Automatic annotation (TrEMBL):
Protein name: UDP-N-acetylmuramoylalanine--D-glutamate ligase
Domain of life: Bacteria
Every Mur ligase central domain range: 112-290
Reaction catalyzed: UDP-N-acetyl-alpha-D-muramoyl-L-alanine + D-glutamate + ATP = UDP-N-acetyl-alpha-D-muramoyl-L-alanyl-D-glutamate + ADP + phosphate + H(+)
Species of origin: Gottschalkia purinilytica (Clostridium purinilyticum)
Annotated function: Cell wall formation. Catalyzes the addition of glutamate to the nucleotide precursor UDP-N-acetylmuramoyl-L-alanine (UMA).
InterPro entries per the UniProt record, alphabetical: Mur-like_cat_sf, Mur_ligase_C, Mur_ligase_C_dom_sf, Mur_ligase_cen, MurD
Localization: Cytoplasm
Length: 452
């Protein structure tokens, strides 16, 4: 795909917009960037692009589309905004960076999606491939944008991609060598409108695969198990609770791989450092990917024994006066936070709340199950979660304005042996730029407790 001298509009200037703009410029395109935010709000991103000739339209999307050949939109921008509808009516294609990366690349792509577990699985898989000697790029919804990585890669490099539903929803030709879906529970319904639309977006990760590719699905997830009929790739299941006739599963306290003829032990569960059933599923996912790509069992086992998890996902922060603090800011939906609660020993002082994505908190509160002794709420969902909890007879609730106040309150009400868990069950965008920023603020406040 030759982009030289093409007029390409980058819709949305943030991390992915910067990466995309740099890459397009390197490929010889004429880059136009538009964002509804004003210049003063985008200074840090514009500064990163100061050495590149770019035409900016900021504070509006008032772009002359007659001169545009292609639009690359930032993943989180909805498809129903006027500029996109107008472009599509004129026959201008609108895609995301992940789709363009595939079109211009000769690399092997491994795409990992799902509601929860994407980041840990992607990071773990990346470590395995690095250890195995592959030129490895861990990218997509984490790290720097994928397009910049692609234009600076070698053709035999492997891309381990965390693919969000936002990115996948605008794909058309995307065809990874390996696709994997960790699980599916309702999420981002404020964006996708219905669970059916959300599932369809996730399915796009394997829709173009054929007999030369691999589709890996979670057998324990009834939605994913039913997707077998929709893929033309070689289907591999993984399971944490079922013995399979073929695939990756647990047997006699070992993760095993079974090709239908031979069963091989990979690693004892006792040697896996990352805690919780959900992390076992993440480990099974990474094993399945590495196995179908021919990575040796010894390499897989060695990495699993030494992998300690990722920042902001059940991250141990500190122990102060025999109270342990955990940062699970990556818990951006109820199901993710339920898994965190299940993985932490009781009693738990839970800090939750944030931006409302339109889901229910019933199952979230049900998961407290005598483990959660106190609930500290922040953000726009505070009252919604409080009302759900009260309806379910949970009443030890505090509402505060900031993470700082939440950490201080947790310290005041804690006893020896308690676990303070930040796992918001919500997005961060009502108060923070990202879940990473939210997690960093939490860790900073815990550090200040230590110093006090």
């Amino acid at each position: 795909m030759n982009l030289k001298d093409k007029n390409i509009l980058v819709l949305g200037l943030a991390v992915s917009g910067v990466s995309t703009s740099k890459a397009l410029s390197k490929l010889g395109a004429n880059v136009i960037v538009t964002d509804m935010k004003k210049e003063e709000e985008l200074k840090e991103y514009i500064e990163e692009l100061k050495d590149i000739h770019i035409t900016y339209v900021l504070g509006s999307n008032d772009v002359d589309l007659e001169k545009i050949d292609l639009i690359i939109k930032s993943p989180g921008i909805p498809l129903d905004i006027p500029i996109i509808k107008n472009a599509e009516s004129k026959g201008i294609e609108v895609i995301t960076d992940i789709e363009l990366s595939y079109r211009i690349s000769k690399n092997r792509f491994i795409a990992i999606t799902g509601t929860n577990g994407k980041t840990t699985t992607t990071s773990l898989t990346g470590e395995i491939f690095k250890k195995a000697g592959f030129g490895t790029h861990v990218t997509g919804n984490i790290g720097v944008g994928i397009l910049w990585e692609v234009v600076n890669s070698h053709d035999d490099d492997v891309f381990i991609i965390e693919a969000s539903s936002f990115q996948l929803d605008s794909t058309k030709k995307f065809k990874p060598k390996v696709s994997l879906i960790t699980n599916i529970t309702p999420d981002h319904l404020n964006w996708h409108k219905t669970i059916e639309n959300y599932i369809k977006a996730k399915q796009k990760v394997f829709r173009n695969q054929d007999k030369d590719d691999f589709t890996i699905l979670n057998y324990d997830d009834h939605i994913l198990r039913s997707m077998e009929k929709y893929t033309s790739g070689n289907l591999i299941f993984f399971s944490s609770s079922n013995v399979l006739s073929k695939g990756v599963y647990v047997k006699d306290n070992y993760i095993v791989v079974n090709d239908g003829k031979n069963i091989k032990n990979v690693i004892s569960l006792d040697h896996i450092k990352i805690p919780g059933k959900h992390n076992l599923e993440n480990a099974l996912s990474a094993v399945a990917i590495a196995w179908v790509m021919g990575v040796s069992i010894d390499v897989i086992s060695d990495v699993l024994m030494n992998f300690e998890g990722v920042e902001h996902r059940l991250e141990f922060v500190d122990e102060i006066k025999k109270v342990r603090y955990f940062n699970d800011s990556k818990g951006t939906n109820p199901d993710a936070s339920i898994k965190a609660i299940e993985a932490i020993n009781s009693p738990i002082i839970l800090i939750a709340g944030g931006m409302d994505k339109g889901g229910s908190f019933d199952d979230f509160v049900d998961s407290f199950d005598n483990k959660v002794k106190a609930l500290i709420l922040i953000g726009e969902t505070a009252e919604k979660i409080k009302n759900t909890a009260i309806n379910k007879k949970f009443s030890n609730i505090y509402i505060v304005e900031t993470i700082q106040e939440a950490v201080q309150k947790s310290f005041e009400i804690s006893n020896e042996g308690d676990n303070v868990l930040l796992s918001p069950a919500c997005a961060s965008w009502d108060m923070f730029e990202s879940y990473e920023e939210r997690g960093r603020v939490f860790k900073k406040e815990v550090k200040l407790l230590r110093e006090a």
